[in-house]
Design a protein that fits this description.
By secondary structure, the chain is an alpha+beta fold. The chain has three domains: 113 residues, Butyryl-Coa Dehydrogenase, subunit A, domain 1; 106 residues, Butyryl-CoA Dehydrogenase, subunit A, domain 2 (Beta Barrel); 152 residues, Butyryl-CoA Dehydrogenase, subunit A, domain 3, CATH 1.20.140.10. The protein is 49% helix and 15% strand. It contains twelve helices and ten strands. Strands 1-4-5-8 form a four-stranded mixed β-sheet, with helices on one face. It is globular.
Length: 386
Amino acid sequence: MMPRTIFEPEHEQFRDSVRRFFREQIEPRVPAWRAQGYVDRNAYRLAGEQGYLLLWAPEEYGGAGIDDLRYEQIVQEENLRHGDIGFYSNLHSMVVAPYIGKLGSEQQKQRWLPGAVSGEKILAVAMTEPAAGSDLAGMKARAEDRGDHWLLNGSKTYISNGINADIIVVAARTDPESRHAMGLFVVEAGMEGFTRGRKLHKLGLDAQDTAELFFDNVRVPKENVLGDATQGFKYLARFLATERLMVGVGAIAHAQVAFDLTLDFVKERRAFGKPIGALQNTRFKMAEMRAQLDAIQSYIDQGVMLANAGQLSAEAASGIKLLSSELENRVIDECLQLHGGAGYMEEYRISRMFRDARVSRIFAGSNEIMKEIIGRGLGLDDRKMS
């Protein structure tokens, strides 16, 4: 693996402590979580006690005030290596919480951020609907202004952290005449009219509590609206770049783990009287994957530094998400093949990783949508060229 030059000594010291945490506190619990279909709530409290949630949050809300995505990158990488891909602490910290941290009023931040930092309150965001996935403008959930509150109706599906979440940022249309007028409404557990549906059974991500959510005349107080109730579409677009970058961070970390597991396996597994790693096909496959992983890791690391500087564009984030998730799936497929029959057995981690990886080409915007964003950034937009 090529040396990664973006990290300073203090980052590596932080990594050592994060690695110990995931090895000692998270890894032993993973088999039970995957069997039961959700991560225990206590996992978030354990991470919060160590200060590993919402590292960016200012000290007045209980955070460390670290405005450097490299630390969040380290937490995600170590979770992928020693924890479990279904422990969505990154969704909690880097996808949902920033909506509150950057759009919320001082009162809202005081209400919700401390619990998120400590892990006492688990976060989720609800955008996807049964008939509207990557096309946010096609969502049907609606909120009506009733004077002192908003009345929220609709349903959401494929919501990560949907069973455990205490605080859910819900996107809903606020003007039936406009495809882009929507608001972001904070729905809290226990609100009348808010119910959770079934925990969805998935191809992979066995420990992730993915669920359906239903909103039947939920009275959302005006103080639970984030920012302008008509600008939600713009807010979602603004925050999606970082979300897609973090998908890339996780995808390449997942692929790196698969490569390392396979490298150990091919050195030990024997065929025709010698380790299968000594066969030319194996050597060439591993060499090709090593070069590709190093290339995309460098691309992602550069994206993290651009995000730190506030210069990560939608097109760059889409490229990172596209290439990293495609490579993740190719690498893990090749690694499973090199495991032979063992790769098809559930007891081998590579088998579970194969299932877990497939969704990364779909969520946070499908890879087809990533290509659309990149293409339009090149000026190749049929709406302008026709």
